[in-house]
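## Example pair
The file below holds two records. Each record gives the amino-acid sequence first, followed by its C-alpha cell line.
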Amino acid sequence: KMSSGIQIKPKTAVQKSKTLPCSPGPAIKPQPKPSDKLNPKTIDPFGAHSRPPSAFAAIYAKGGIPCRLVHGSVKHRLQWECLPESVPFDPLLVTLAEGLRETKHPYTFVSKEGFKELLMVEGATEKAIPLLPRLVPALKAALAHSDDEVFGRGLDALVQLSAVVGPSLNDHLKHLLTNLSRRLMDKKFKEKITVALQKLEQYGGKVS
C-alpha cells in the first residue's frame, strides 16, 4: 500500500509540472519589445514613476519639515514656519541629517541649511548630544555616498556637529573616520578633509 501511495505522488507532481510551463506562457508573450529597452524615452517615465520618493522627500512633501526654501536673487535662504529654537530636535535634526544624502533640489539645500541653522540655536548642545547615536549613522551614510556633493555636505555637517557637541562626538568618530580616510586619496577633498580633521581634533579635545 505504501509503495502504491508513493507512486501516486510523482504522478501528481508530473501533472503539476506539465501545467506549470503553460502559465508563464501568456506572461512571456508581451515581452518581445527590445525597442523599449533601447529607447530611453520609454525607460525614463517608468523610472521616474516607479521609484518611490525618499523618506526625506516624503516628510518634506507632507509638511513634516517646518522650513521652506525661499529663492533669492543672489542667495537662497530658509524660511522657518516657527522659530528654530522652538522646534523639537527629535526627530527633526535626525531627519535633516538623513536628508544630506539627497541629490535633488530643493531637498539638498533644505537639509544642509536646516541642519546648520538648527545647530545654531541656543541650547543646541544639550538637544543634540542625546541624538548622536542616530545622527552618526546618517552622517556616515552621507560620507560613504559616491556623489561628491553629498560627501561635501556630510563633511560640513560633521564639523558643525562637532563644534556643537564637542568631546561627546569622540566615541562615535571611529565609525566615520574610515569614510574620510578613503576620500583623502582624492585630490579634490584632501585639503578639505585635512581641515575638517583638524577641527574635529580641536573641538574634541585631547582625547580625540
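Second record, same layout:
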Amino acid sequence: MASYRIRQYQDQDYDAVRTLFARGILEHTPAGYRHFLRSAWAQLGLLVFFVAVRAAAGYWVLGLGAMALVLAATWLLVRSFSTSYVRQALSTDLCDITASYLRAPDSCFWVAEAGGSVVGMVAVAPPQDPAERGVALELKRMSVSKDYRGRGVSKALCGEVLRFARARGYGAVVLSTSMVQVAAQRLYEGQGFKKVGAFSPSLLGSLLCFQIFHYRCDLPGRTAAP
C-alpha cells in the first residue's frame, strides 16, 4: 500500500510547494557544473588559459591560482543560471498557483502528501508553443522530495497528468526537462514520452553547454480538443 496520497493543491500547500520546487532545481546545479567542465571546448579553454597565465607570469603557482579563480567564477555563473530560473518561476505561475492552475481552463496542480507533508508536486496547463495549443497539454513543475524518490511518487504524479489530458480529449502531453535531470528523463521515457527536440534556453545556457530536452507522449485513441 502506498505511503503517500495524490490530491489537488490547496492554499495551505503554498510555502511547501515553492520550497520543494526551489530545492529540486538547485540540487541539479553541481551536475550542470560537472557537465560544463566535461565539455571539450571548456577543457580546451581552461588549458589555453592556464598555459597563457603560466607563460606570462612565469610561475606555476600563479597559473594554478588563476585557474582556481576561473573555476570558482564558473561555479557562480552556473549557480546564477539555476537561481534565476527559480526566481522567474516563483514570480510567475508559482506566485499565484490557484490562479495559474486551478482557475485556468484545462489546467490543474497536484501534490503528493505523506505524513502530513508535501513530498511531491506536478502541474498541467496548455503549452506555451502555439502549435501545440488545442492539441496537447504540458506537464510542468514536477518535483519530488529526495526522501521519497524511488517509491513511485513521480510515476503516480505523471499518471495524473496523463489521465487528466485523456479525460479532456487531448491527443498528447508535452514537457521540457534539462539535460542534467537524467532520472527525470528515465521516468518520462518509461511512461511513453519520446524526446522530440533540444534547445539552449538562453545565450548563457549556450555558453554553459546547457540544453533543454523537449518530450512528447501521444495518447492513442484520443483526438485533439476543440
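Notes on the second record: Strands lie at 5-8, 108-114, 117-125, 136-144, 172-178, 194-199, 212-218. Residues 1-225 form a domain with the Aminopeptidase fold (CATH 3.40.630.30).
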